[in-house]
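hiii so um. not sure if this is the right channel but i have a protein structure encoded as tokens and i wanna go backwards to a sequence. like what aa goes where. can anyone help
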């Protein structure tokens, strides 16, 4: 069990007298202290928030925890540097990375909805929940999360891994895609697999989910069995794909990602180990 506890909330209990903590963000970057083991939390004496956008994230170890958008900050705490959120994935603990991802997503939501998408009027932060409201036309804007499916397809002791156009065969992962309007997660899975590699699958098994703040996805993970067809990559999103034996895998995601967990679960099963739930 972790020694750290974070409780999401949008208001602070009146009897909470704890000193607040701050995460300082700029787009998809966080301000960190310069050290091999970076710290992303700052106390009230280190942060000058006047004129900046500040939002409550929740309670961290009982302390109010806020995100501050530092895009227009004139002064930064001494001994700090900006680090990309993605670069912190393998550096921060899971608890701190989830907190960092939440901070970036809340700051991005606030930035993107300063003006109403219906009438163009300025919006204001709602006092009771995580939303911005337009007083002119009474529209509300909540943080947007994009659901995606990610699937590891298996055939005996082989799994199908694919390389995107961005990685050009140097890195492989499970197949993934966004859920379209009107689709279920299962329908998306079948469609994406057919579009990207041209095969059919069956025996879908839900594995788990993961918040993926790049910039705001919810990954829904499945295992699936190969049914029929030959691999034919789309050549646009996917440039290479193949079947890989469990003990001869190419470079692929680590265990901090849902893709890596799907792959490790498959490998453990092939090795006769009790797979992770």
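sure thing!! here u go:
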């Amino acid at each position: 069990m972790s020694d750290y506890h974070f409780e999401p909330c949008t208001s602070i209990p009146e009897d909470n007298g704890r000193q607040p903590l701050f995460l300082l963000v700029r787009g998809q970057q966080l301000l960190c202290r310069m050290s091999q083991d970076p710290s992303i939390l700052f106390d009230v004496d280190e942060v000058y928030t006047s004129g900046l956008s500040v939002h409550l994230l929740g309670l961290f170890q009982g302390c109010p925890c806020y995100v501050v958008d530092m895009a227009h900050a004139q002064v930064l705490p001494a001994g700090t540097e900006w680090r990309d959120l993605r670069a912190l994935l393998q550096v921060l603990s899971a608890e701190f990375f989830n907190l960092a991802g939440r901070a970036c997503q809340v700051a991005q939501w606030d930035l993107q909805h300063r003006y109403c998408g219906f009438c163009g009027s300025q919006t204001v932060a709602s006092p009771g929940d995580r939303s911005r409201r337009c007083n002119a036309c009474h529209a509300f804007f909540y943080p947007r999360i994009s659901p995606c499916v990610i699937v590891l397809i298996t055939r005996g002791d082989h799994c199908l891994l694919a390389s995107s156009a961005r990685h050009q065969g140097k890195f492989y992962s499970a197949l993934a895609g966004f859920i379209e309007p009107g689709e279920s997660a299962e329908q998306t899975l079948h469609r994406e697999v057919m579009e990207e590699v041209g095969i059919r699958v069956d025996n879908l098994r839900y594995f788990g989910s993961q918040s993926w703040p790049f910039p705001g996805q919810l990954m829904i993970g499945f295992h699936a069995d190969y049914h029929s067809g030959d691999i034919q990559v789309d050549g646009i999103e996917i440039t290479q794909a193949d079947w890989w034996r469990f003990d001869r895998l190419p470079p692929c995601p680590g265990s901090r990602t849902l893709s890596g967990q799907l792959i490790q679960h498959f490998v453990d099963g092939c090795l006769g180990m009790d797979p992770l739930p």
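oh and The chain has a mean pLDDT of 92.
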